[in-house]
Amino acid sequence: MEKNLLMESKKCFCDTGQLFENCCGLYLNNNQKAPSALTLMRSRFSAYATHNADYLLETTYFSERRYYSKPEILRWAVSNKWQKLEILSFTENTVEFKAYFVDSNEKPQIHYEFSTFKFENESWFYLDGKFE
């Protein structure tokens, strides 16, 4: 609980410049639904930064969840220091981005992805991504 209180007063991890509580915190902490694929992408980056594996699984499209496990997601989220999200382009159901992080060996890394999202049952879900 203390961790959430500390995060509420800082800037959001997704680089909008807004406070976490007024940005991705709405979706991660207040159970609001992301209104767009772009917003969902931003909130998923913040979920990695805050080690919220439950949110990452819940926002992955149903048929794709079998390819992920909560322990694996959590291990990857915790082992990296998430630094910055850069949105390169987006459409209604795609987001191209770079996620900057420092890995467990203290080496700077860039994760590039072209993600596809699906809107179903009044919610956006991460479907899949192409990586470089």
Question: What would your notes on this structure say?
Answer:
By secondary structure, the protein is an alpha+beta fold. The protein has five helices and four strands. Strands 1-2-3-4 form a four-stranded antiparallel sheet, covered by helices on one side. A hairpin with a 2-residue loop joins strand 3 (108-120) and strand 4.
List the topology elements:
Blueprint: H1 2-8, H2 25-28, H3 37-49, H4 53-58, H5 70-79, E1 81-90, E2 94-102, E3 108-120, E4 123-131
Antiparallel strand pairs: 1-2, 2-3, 3-4
State the CATH class. Alpha Beta
Number of helices: 5
Q: State the low-pLDDT regions, or none.
A: 1-8
How many separate structural domains? 1
Name the shape in a single word: globular
Can you give me a brief rundown of this structure?
With 132 residues, the protein is of the alpha+beta class. 30% of the residues lie in helices and 31% in strands.
Keyphrases for this structure?
132 residues, alpha+beta, Nuclear Transport Factor 2, Chain: A, disordered N terminus
